[in-house]
Write a structure and sequence with these properties.
Blueprint lengths: L1 H7 L7 H6 L3 E4 L3 H5 L7 E2 L5 H11 L3 E5 L3 H12 L4 E6 H9 L1
Parallel strand pairs: 1-2, 1-3, 3-4
């Protein structure tokens, strides 16, 4: 039982630098005001409330997507939406985590 719970919350190791080298799009799903206060390099801002309207445009780019936000909650919601649309997506968590991962 303990291993089941551990695996349930186990976060997959993702090489964000490699994903970006493959052309991944970093999408910060915070509000434009939050985004203006700081964001990961090369991130674009599509607020979570606008994601549904941008699905086809993102899907047509045929690139992996890395979502991020302030804490990882909204980016997790966005990642679920993208995944259901058939888009290769990774929840990067907070934008600071993504920025740090890209700097390594």
């Amino acid at each position: 039982m303990r291993s089941f719970i551990k695996n349930l919350f186990k976060k997959e190791k993702v090489n964000y630098t490699e994903l970006v080298q493959r052309g991944a799009i970093i999408i910060d799903v915070r509000t434009s005001k939050e985004f203006a206060q700081g964001h990961a390099d090369s991130a674009i801002n599509i607020p979570l409330s606008d994601i549904a309207n941008k699905i086809e445009a993102i899907k047509n780019q045929n690139k992996p997507v890395i979502t991020c936000c302030r804490s990882g909650a909204r980016s997790g919601n966005a990642a679920t939406i993208f995944k259901h649309a058939g888009i290769e997506v990774y929840n990067g968590g907070s934008w600071n985590q993504v920025q740090t991962a890209l700097a390594l």
